[in-house]
Design a protein that fits this description.
mainly alpha
Length: about 450
Amino acid sequence: MHDTTALLVELGSVILGLGLIGRFAGRIGLSPIPLYLLAGLAFGEGGLLPLGASEEFTAVGAEIGVILLLLLLGLEYSASELVTSLKTQYPSGAVDFVLNATPGAVAALLLGWGPVGAVALAGVTWISSSGVIAKVLTDLGRLGNRETPVILGVLVIEDLSMAVYLPLLTAMLAGVGLAGGSIALLIALGTVGFVLYLALRHGRLISRAVSSDNPEMLLLVVLGLTVLVAGVAQELQVSAAVGAFLVGIALSGEVAEGARKLLTPLRDLFAAVFFVFFGLSTNPAEIPPVLLPAALLAVVTVLTKIATGWYAARRAGIGSRGRWRAGGTLVARGEFSIVIAGLAVATEPRIGPIATAYVLILVIVGPLTARWTQPVVAKIQAWRGKDVNTGKDVNTSKGGATGKGGSTGKGGAAGKGDSAGDGGGGGEVPAVRPAPTAQEELAPDRL
């Protein structure tokens, strides 16, 4: 079969298959991301039916998918909101680093990988997948939730931290001295700082220059600018995803709204390609030998990420439901973890299979924890007699069930307050709030 013909047949089959998978996932109320990954695993190297002709195109499409995911995420927020988020969320970023990088570093040292392997695996377990989480937030309709800015704040701190982490890791892997590593770090920090400065000081001018009443021209200019900035950022040792996110931050007003409408279908298409490519690039035969240590590491870091999100949302004054949603949403690992493992595999080959198995586990589990962490916790709290919003016992407040002074105490039978308060037994009794339904969970919750 001619190369072009084979490419068209494979690519058409992949896109059609993604559409059918997405429809099936929607019917059963599941995010399609895990199914995309499993499909890629089935048709990748060592899978049931390897796809060769479309591999190069799929790789490029996957890169574009990550870029578009982060661009659309950036379009949701202004530069001032980003700076405010960084100012308020940096303690959460520090907690995130300590809780989630430590398990990876300890595991690498226990496996005998040495300092470089420890730094690399720490990065794999630390960084959540901005691409997966952006897709999950969109699928679950949570972009308007009160906890979403907190989630994005943690993700932005992680992504910007890659501007420091990746140059340092590259220098360690290459055996470069302190001077060489410092130069790479300064270039990366300077690039991020320059783009942030442009977004803050000249965002309106950029939006005005990009603006067009012609949808075609707007699409071409925004997409071209984003891919160009992402490529330059990658060349300067800053993540392409960070570059795309900052372009989204720089655009505002009607330009941002118009770009969102035009680019959303493209984002959905190429994001699906990204998740399939992730599965295609993994050989299933490499996973079973490292599945147990990867699973143990995954269990630990699921708990630490949930704790991170809970802490960050609590600092922002968000209610119990939003805290658990934030924690569950941050679980997924993805593109950055694979990039880190890819850099380190030449120095420590053993990191490749375990990182792949680890990411595959969490990129499948992540959308599930995002959807089910809060409902499961709510049901457990209701079963234990706790209020699902505050987590407090509804029957152990001041005064007990009979109120202060018993049934004839302050307020008498019709006393002040409720059964858990300061009044009598005839007060208004607070009901245990039931766990939210699927419809309530999918609605933009402001709690």
